[in-house]
Design brief:
- This protein has 3 domains: 61 residues, SH3 type barrels, CATH 2.30.30; 61 residues, Nucleic acid-binding proteins (OB fold (Dihydrolipoamide Acetyltransferase, E2P), Beta Barrel), CATH 2.40.50; 58 residues, OB fold (Dihydrolipoamide Acetyltransferase, E2P).
- Helix content is 0%, strand content 54%.
- It has no helices and 16 strands.
- The radius of gyration is 20 Å and the shape is flat.
């Protein structure tokens, strides 16, 4: 058993007879009244996100997890296939349980949280940034911008992101997988 002081991003807990992963939290200590923790929880079974507030000191049932490195192999319909980099065992997960799957290219190494009680995978953690090649974008036109103008671009995985006007087809760009946004252009 843990308490609200143990809450951190990525912690898996049992709540309402389901397993949830904490994706955001905020400790709040108002001037009047008791402290509390505002959280955003994502169900690892359905992918549904809910908001919940725990009072300070509230007991929460955490789920013991192990982390393993897996390599993304390929997609087949709505299923994604991964291989454990240690023992070469393969697992299949539904696309909806993988945050940022649109930025995952074949060969990408991700971290998968596995429930130690039943050995089932709970969630997939993408690297914070990935480097992808731009496969399609319109050319930027000089002179019709004010500041921070962007244009849509398609990357090699098929995902669409907004990029600055100076990005061209064939450029490699660094993307933030959590926000799904452009970070920088990679020079080769």
């Amino acid at each position: 058993m843990a308490s609200t002081s143990d809450i951190k991003k990525g912690l898996c807990i049992k709540y309402n007879s389901d397993i949830f992963k904490i994706i955001e939290f905020l400790h709040v200590k108002p001037g009047k009244g008791p402290a509390f923790v505002r959280t955003k929880l994502k169900s690892v079974t359905t992918g549904k996100v809910i908001d919940n507030t725990f009072s300070a000191g509230h007991k929460i049932e955490d789920v013991r997890v192990e982390t393993h490195k897996f390599q993304y192999l390929y997609a087949e319909g709505d299923d994604l296939h991964f291989m454990n980099t240690d023992d070469y065992n393969q697992i299949t997960l539904e696309r909806k349980v993988v945050d940022g799957s649109e930025f995952m290219k074949e060969g990408e190494v991700v971290t998968i949280l596995i429930n130690t009680e039943d050995g089932l995978p709970l969630s997939v953690e993408m690297p914070s940034h990935v480097i992808l090649e731009v496969t399609h974008t319109e050319p930027g036109v000089k002179g019709n911008t004010a500041t921070n103008a962007t244009k849509p671009a398609t990357v090699e995985t098929g995902a669409r992101v907004n990029v600055p006007l100076f990005i061209n087809e064939g450029d490699k760009i660094k993307l933030d997988t959590e926000k799904g946004t452009y970070s920088e252009r990679i020079k080769e």
